[in-house]
What we know:
The chain is an alpha+beta fold. The protein is 23% helix and 40% strand. An eight-stranded mixed beta sheet has the order 2-3-4-1-5-8-7-6.
Amino acid sequence: MIKRLHHVAIAVNNLEEGVSLYERLLGVKPASIEGIPGQGVRVAVFKVGGEAEIELLQPIGPDSPVAKFLASRGQGIHHICFEVDDIDRELEAMAARGFELIDKVGREGLEGRVGFLHPRAAGGVLIELVQCPG
Length: 134
């Protein structure tokens, strides 16, 4: 079951420029900036309004999914993430309800185990599900 909106991820060409823009926009510094080599990105995370986050994604190399997104669509919203209790159970339930999955089982992500639904499944929007530790 979906518990809450976890974050909105925004693809950027230059993480430092994106961080500067969102620091001015949100009035806060990023809570973290780190690389996720397995997903081919550097990520800056901003905490907003208590529980929600804004993640800025910069591709590490030209072959990452975010690099391909930027090449075809330009900077902007990359995906929306919802927190779930059990990633594997939720992915199975989504598949049973007819949603096309990118991940059939959860895998390690920035803030826990994650899985993605294909954008074709959600009207052109990439949906991430995350099971946070604890």
